[in-house]
């Protein structure tokens, strides 16, 4: 007999990705958990929709993100290297972003390359 609870995913385990663009801004709004398998989904969306050739701001809004695992941290590092700016109000999310940006600072002895694969 199949255990139904093993295949049940709660809404709170999901990640909602919204994307809006104007002539001056590209905005990604994330709600939920930035974890496997949603990291791969966001990466695929990013590769399909993110444009660096139009000279507009790229904002990734993390105000409604509730958890970020290591694969999510690696993806956020990749987005930062691609020029993304982050908006976050929560203490947890701000701490994660501080850790990520510290690793990206040139000349920082704690800086090390980030693995983009999860």
How would you characterize the overall build of this protein?
By secondary structure, this protein is an alpha/beta fold. The protein has one domain: STAS domain (Transcription Regulator spoIIAA, 2-Layer Sandwich). It contains three helices and four strands; from the N terminus they run ββαβαβα. A four-stranded mixed β-sheet has the order 1-2-3-4. α2 links the parallel β3 and β4. α2 crosses α3. The longest helix is centred in the C-terminal third of the chain and has 14 residues.
Q: Approximately how much beta-strand content do the residues carry?
A: 25-35%
CATH topology: Transcription Regulator spoIIAA
| Largest beta-sheet characterization | 4 strands, mixed
Number of extended strands: 4
Low-confidence spans: pLDDT under 50, at least 5 residues?
1-8, 109-118
């Amino acid at each position: 007999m199949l255990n139904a609870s093993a295949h049940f995913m709660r809404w709170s385990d999901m990640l909602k990705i919204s994307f809006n663009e104007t002539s001056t801004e590209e905005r990604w709004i994330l709600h939920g958990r930035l974890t496997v398998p949603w990291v791969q989904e966001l990466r695929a969306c990013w590769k399909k929709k993110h444009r660096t050739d139009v000279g507009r701001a790229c904002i990734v809004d993390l105000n409604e993100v509730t958890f970020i695992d290591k694969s999510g941290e690696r993806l956020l590092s990749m987005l930062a290297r691609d020029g993304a700016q982050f908006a976050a109000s929560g203490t947890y999310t701000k701490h994660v972003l501080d850790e990520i940006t510290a690793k990206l600072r040139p000349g920082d002895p704690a800086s090390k390359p980030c693995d983009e694969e999860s």
